């Protein structure tokens, strides 16, 4: 083989090498693209989860504050307030929150006891009595002040990530489907703003 033929062969090899770089890039993209998309969706889901968790806290403090500002409550008024708390979570709607409002009376004794005055829960669009009136209930020690009254507002949510919302998504994720539900919850204690106690005859 003469020099010219060798040069032509070398040039052909170079051209083939350059042509094959496109294939290498395609293979690299095939490996990297799924990771890029996975990081994108995980970041998006993580930020949505944080935002929803903050809204759960807002729902609890909102309903508690509205009740604490009222001199007297009725069951219908409590239901309306808890529906407002549920609306705070929008546009998230993959699962419904459970909102509970409990009025707590601290007895006027040397050793005060925390007793349920009334309690109401709102879950899946249905309201019901939560804690039994007159039953003992745990309260932080720093709030156990004799002859006082507290409103405890709680909001709980089973968060469903959008990527595992469907059965197809769970199957596609395999083991990651174990994280398809995350429990979120917040609770706050407030004192009445207008009166010493807030009665609710039909709660």
Characteristic terms for this protein:
3 helices, five-stranded antiparallel sheet, 203 residues, 21% strand, alpha+beta
Number of domain modules: 1
- The helix fraction, in percent, is 40-55%
First-residue to last-residue Cα separation: 101 Å
Radius of gyration: 30 Å
Oligomer: single chain
- The helix count comes to 3
Strand fraction band? Answer: 15-25%
- How would you describe the shape? rod-shaped
Largest sheet: 5 strands, antiparallel
How would you portray this structure in words?
The radius of gyration is 30 Å and the shape is rod-shaped. With 203 residues, it is an alpha+beta fold. It has a 5-stranded antiparallel beta sheet with strand order 3-2-1-4-5, covered by helices on one side. The protein has one domain. It has helices at 3-68, 75-87, 167-173; strands at 98-106, 114-123, 126-129, 149-159, 182-190. The mean pLDDT is 84. 21% of the residues are buried. The chain is 42% helix and 21% strand.
Summarize the model shown.
This protein is 42% helix and 21% strand.
Which SSEs are present, and which pair or pack?
Elements: H1 3-68, H2 75-87, E1 98-106, E2 114-123, E3 126-129, E4 149-159, H3 167-173, E5 182-190
Antiparallel strand pairs: 1-2, 1-4, 2-3, 4-5
Helix pairs in contact: 1-2
